[in-house]
Amino acid sequence: MDIPHLTWDSVIFSDPDGGKIVLWPHLPCVRMPNALRPRESWDGLALLASSNDLAEWRIEEEQERDSPGIHRDSALTSGTAFGRLVSDLVELEIDGPSIPDPEQIRLIKHAENARGGMPIYSIEPNLDDEIWEDYLTRSADEQVRLGNLLATLRTSKRWKNNRRAAPSKIEKNNYVDVELGAASASSVTWWLEEERWNSDELNSERNLRFASRLRGALRDLCDSRVDESIKLGCPRCRRQYCLGRKWNWSSRRNEIG
Asked: Nearest 5 degrees, angle CA 33-CA 72-CA 235?
């Protein structure tokens, strides 16, 4: 999988049926500098997570207050790709890593407190969704194929190579120093590692479902309020999957998130 071109600015997508989506890419587990936070106005919030995830984040936030660093330390010993990301971020002079994700928590609190409360949409379905459950089952089967299991033996080398190559794909920005740039390189390396375990067909199926639910959320916002702008906060490394051909915005199936 190729390393995507990474920018720091928001992208505004105008839906052909009306309304717009403000896509803001941020770094996972990192509190972003104020200068990199978007200035565009928005009327509803969408997150690439399930409603169960959002509930879990609240629990994690409370646990983090009681035992600072508990979830970071757990990730460091997990042996997962996410654990590798957290390990990279710990070595950098940045505001993080923090779990749950500080920027997503900040967006949720803003949505809850601004203008009497804005709608919050979960773009990933919950596990009680039969179609999504079937997708997750097939995804799990794909990950334990012999070829993928053998590929885990090369994870360290692949991680180092992708992290080394990533800086050439990162857009320059006056507010981004070397440390934040390195965090971005590690973030996209993590995402590439996560994506490689699924087939292109499964990734396409997931992306189409997300696009359908996001457009459905926008339709719900436009139909129920006079507002027409929804903000999608997502990790920067997933940016190009959220707009353009990866999400196939021509799909007419609009599902309410």
From this structure: 45
Is the per-residue pLDDT at 9 higher than 70? yes
| Gap between the Cα atoms of 210 and 136, Å rounded | 14
The end-to-end CA distance of the chain, in Å, is 29
Could you tell me the residue ranges of all domains in the chain?
11-246
pLDDT score of 100: 96
Query: Which position has the token pair 């890419």?
Result: 25
Residue 152 to residue 33: CA distance in whole angstroms: 35
Give me Rg for the CA atoms of the chain: 18
**Percentage of the chain exceeding pLDDT 90:** 56
- Angle value at C-alpha 151, between 150 and 155, nearest 5 degrees: 130
Token pair 């997508």 is found at 13
Length of the chain: 257
What residue ranges in the chain does DSSP mark as E strands? 11-14, 20-26, 44-47, 120-122, 229-235
